[in-house]
Amino acid sequence: MISIEEMDNLLYMSQRQGKISFYMTSFGETATTVGTTAALQSQDFIFPQYREQGSFMWRGFTIEQIVNQCIGNHLDGGKGRQMPVHYGSKDLNIVTVSSPLTTQVPQASGAGYGFRVNGENKIAATWFGEGAASEGDFHSAMNFAQTLKCQTLFLCRNNHYAISTPTDDQFRGDTIAGKAPAYGMRTLKIDGNDLLAVYNGVKYAREQIIKNKEPFFIEFITYRIGDHSTSDHSVLYRSQEEIDSWKSGNNPINRLGLFLKKQGLRQFNDEHDNQIRKDVRNRVIAALKNGSEQQQPSIQDMFTDVYDEVLPHLSEQYTQLRDHLTKYKDQYPINKFKGGL
Amino acid sequence: MQLLKRVHQFGSTKHRFASDIGSTNRQKMNLFQAINNALDIELGANPKALLFGEDVKFGGVFRCSQGLNEKYGTDRVFNTPLCEQGIGAFGIGLASVGYTAIAEIQFGDYIFPAFDQIVNEAAKFRYRSGNQFNCGSLTIRSTWGAVGHGALYHSQSPEAYFAHTPGLKVVVPRDPIQAKGLLLASIRDKNPVIFFEPKALYRNAEDEVPLDDYELELSKAEVVQQGKHITLIGYGTSIRVLREASKMAEKDGVSCEIIDLQTIYPYDGQTLVDSVKKTGRCIITHEAPQTCGMGAELSAFIQEKCFLHLEAPIRRVTGYDTPFPLVHEPIYLPDKFKIYEAIKESVNY
Description:
The complex is a heterodimer.
Chain A: H1 2-16, H2 30-39, E1 45-47, H3 53-58, H4 63-71, H5 104-117, E2 124-129, H6 136-147, E3 152-158, E4 161-162, E5 165-166, E6 186-191, H7 195-212, E7 216-221, H8 240-249, H9 252-262, H10 270-293, H11 312-327
Parallel strand pairs in A: 1-2, 2-3, 3-7, 6-7
Antiparallel strand pairs in A: 4-5
Helix pairs in contact in A: 1-10, 2-7, 4-10, 5-6
Chain B: E1 13-15, E2 26-30, H1 31-45, E3 49-53, H2 68-72, E4 77-79, H3 84-96, E5 100-105, H4 115-121, H5 125-128, E6 138-144, H6 159-163, E7 169-171, H7 176-188, E8 193-198, H8 201-204, E9 206-210, E10 214-216, E11 222-225, E12 230-234, H9 238-250, E13 256-260, E14 263-265, H10 269-279, E15 282-289, H11 294-306, E16 315-319, H12 329-332, H13 336-347
Parallel strand pairs in B: 1-10, 3-4, 3-5, 5-6, 6-8, 7-8, 12-13, 12-15, 15-16
Antiparallel strand pairs in B: 2-9, 7-14, 11-13
């Protein structure tokens, strides 16, 4: 959690410095993602929203992979096609992030159905915020999952804001967890800033999903300490006092640290933690430097992966582009692309 | 750039044209029976194939899934809740983890709640993930076209909306033999395919359909009738209308070449170009409204490639730019008389 916080700090600043175009931090919410992913098994598929770098990094997604995706260089697993923070990893069973909100949730219902009918010890775990839960896709997902008995785990990060929209403008009724029993679904509501509660709750939910072959819903109550993204300035719609009260009074990193200290399990040692932060900072800085020196994916890669193979009309369009770029080569940053023309 | 080789699966045979299928092991089937047969073959050959949608379990409102739940069980052939956006998303999710998802949307007119999932998710799944993920094993089957009394919401031809979306394939069969082969090819194609079935033909179209497992190539148009003087392009139910119009034109000594597009997107431009370079004249027909219909795209493409060969402007004979009407249907449709008039004007230009 400390590493993620430090990395988020650096990458936020790197956007302000023009090194990457955009970034989204997860300050205040890392217990939800880290605790959850620790309680899942590696073969479980995760369908993320966009603020779950904790899930990625717990499973081993590296700082370098994160930075390369944000820069969009040729080392990005996504081949430079998407905006920053749209990570994905086939190796880690985490489906690539997409910008349209909530679309991943009913997809997780589908995946969870496949796992059940094939008798697999696998679940589909999907993340979404309390704002995303207002989309129609949320309703479809919940109804399909329970009615068709899907091995799907619904994970809602209620962090109190959807960009500037506070929960009072988002829903009435008893939070998102209040909706789940209406679908016939088992539900837990967990303090999302208590890492151990998160871990234990998700572990239980996963066991129940596999045992009963039906979905489970968890809402985590947490708080988005940072801005929605680098395009946001949250003091325009909330008070600094509110932010600070969560930051100092209900912060997942501090709470875990204090707990471990009281249990005598760890020295809450400022010097040690500062070293972790320093190491992470250096690693991010190195990744940014190396990453920015890399070329972007090739020009051909604009045309690949639209289909499983490059179809004739795309081949023709590539040829037209190539001829145009050859003719006007001084007007375009051709050497930025791997392989050039 | 390399085109990857296709790999045969499940012992099926691949053909370019239905006329290439030499099989004598045939059975008289209508369109819904041919579809049913294709689904039966895939479910039998592929244990990871699943068929689902509204009312699919009892056999489907058009009987396409008749007997399949009894044969393959409710885990594999099942009803979904009444929710098209859910059906689309559910299918994408299944396909993304390796299942062959055959999703049914009962009427093309109701595919729009799933539009976001289809256009923003299914179509872009492979590209945006850098090919780490894909939902190529998703096929969405839906019904399509005029039926005589369907009005606004049981008659639509929505192909153009999806043909404007890179990453998707869109297919419309004209007859039972094509439907079976094109559906099997669509299901096995490694890209998400939308397969529109002309509902007017479910019972009305009959053929001696081969019982084998066979596929017909996607993105290949078929010249269903050779001709010299003018090229007529259509798909689905409009092929019948083109045949009738061409018989009328024949009496005037006009020889018409009729092409079935089959795959709407990505379409087989080469076959169209070869034909129009030969005839110099072209008419495109579809039930969907004129503006921004497939006629618009094909006209632009053909005039770009065949400009100096054209003897007359390319004509579109289509539905009007109105919602699909009920009582006005007989005068709304692009029928044989309208096409015949367009042929005459073109030939006499």
